[in-house]
Specification:
Structural class: alpha/beta
Bound molecules: thiamine diphosphate, magnesium ion
CATH architecture: 3-Layer(aba) Sandwich
Radius of gyration: 20 Å
Number of helices: 10
Largest sheet: 6 strands, parallel
Strand order of the largest sheet: 2-1-3-4-8-7
Order of helices and strands: HHEHHEHEHEEEEHEHHH
């Protein structure tokens, strides 16, 4: 079992992940953000459970619903917020936005809006680690919908064949935009597909941060010892719509959403800690207030930060179309 300090740290990081999402949604509503948020609320135990079990040098590839992973891996909140708001101080100098950034200093390979692309990213990073003989493990996060992309199967087959040090994490929130799992997949658990690539697949409760931690740690250690890949399917639910403009109901019932909200991953860990005498209600309130206050300050500072100058428009552009004729 994890010690009190680690459990509390995970609780605090989950609150941070949620506070970041809520701030981003708020800024989007106020038209203060470029692009569109894809809220991670409800899925916090996965980002935090996985990233807390990794070492700093381990690498993660993240997707469109990815700010939670980036926070949990140890991003600087100001730089992350700046990128989401298109500011020069952001991880991509404000030109990538919330779906396109990366920073290897804390093991963040990058995120992408191309559904399924994290799988070949993480597989490539794992191949590089194997060739170098380093101890890094790569993690590829993806949604349930991503599992139906062709490139995912190519990359997983490759990882199975080469016994690469990689952990694939499916965040199965039961929907890909408005399409339910039931309407798009013929099997019950996506983890079953791992058998076809020759490695272990396991479906787990993705709202239990400690369980996600334990399973990730086990998979990562196996990968470090040359045991190859693992596919972890974490069952969860997104509380909000697919993106900022989606109310999240219509294709889902209000009852279903409410039912899942009762399984809140933050409340779950909080209750466990209180029951074990490791946390008091007052202490929880204090931690939460401090995190929300920090996010308030980060947002104010990021909103006041400089936008990229127009004359830097072509900096960092490595290829461009040349007009003919
Ligand atoms: C290659 C590709 N096809 C389609 C899209 C449009 N699209 C964006 S998110 C999404 C659904 C992804 O669902 P899932 O993988 O379950 O992730 P979730 O949004 O549920 O976290 C789709 C189809 C895209 N971005 N990229
Ligand atoms: Mg999904």
């Amino acid at each position: 079992m994890l010690n009190t300090a680690k459990r509390k740290e995970m609780l605090r990081t989950m609150i941070k992940v949620r506070a970041f999402e809520e701030k981003l949604n708020d800024l989007f509503q106020k038209k203060a953000m470029f692009g569109n948020p894809h809220s991670y609320r409800g899925q916090e135990a996965i980002a935090v459970g996985v990233c807390s079990a990794l070492e700093k040098e381990d690498l993660i590839a993240s997707y469109h619903r990815g700010t939670g992973h980036i926070v949990a891996k140890g991003a600087d909140l100001y730089r992350l917020m700046c990128e989401c708001l298109g500011r020069l101080d952001g991880y991509s100098k404000g030109r990538g936005g919330k779906m396109h950034m990366g920073d290897l200093s804390f093991g963040f390979l990058g995120n992408t809006g191309t559904v399924g692309a994290t799988v070949p990213f993480a597989t490539g990073a794992a191949l590089a680690a194997k060739i170098r003989g380093s101890r890094e493990v790569a993690v590829g996060f993806m949604g349930d919908g991503a599992m139906n992309q062709g490139v995912v199967h190519e990359a997983m087959n490759f990882a199975g064949l080469w016994k690469l040090p990689v952990v694939y994490v499916i965040e199965n929130n039961l929907y890909a935009m408005t399409v339910s799992m039931e309407r798009s997949v013929a099997i019950k658990q996506l983890a079953e597909r791992a058998a076809a690539y020759g490695f272990e697949g396991k479906a787990i409760d993705g709202n239990d941060a400690e369980l996600v931690f334990d399973e990730t740690q086990r998979a990562a250690e196996k990968a470090r010892k040359g045991g190859g890949a693992t596919l972890l399917e974490c069952m969860t639910y997104r509380w909000d719509g697919h993106f900022g403009g989606d109310p999240g109901v219509g294709y889902r019932t209000r009852e279903e959403v409410e039912e899942w909200k009762k399984r809140c991953p933050i409340m779950r860990l909080k209750k466990k800690l209180i029951a074990a005498g490791e946390l008091t209600e007052a202490e929880y309130e204090k931690i939460s207030a401090a995190v929300y206050q920090e996010l308030e300050e980060v947002a104010v500072k990021a909103q006041a930060a400089a936008l990229p100058p127009a004359e830097a428009e072509m900096d960092g552009v490595y290829a461009r179309e040349v007009a003919h004729g």
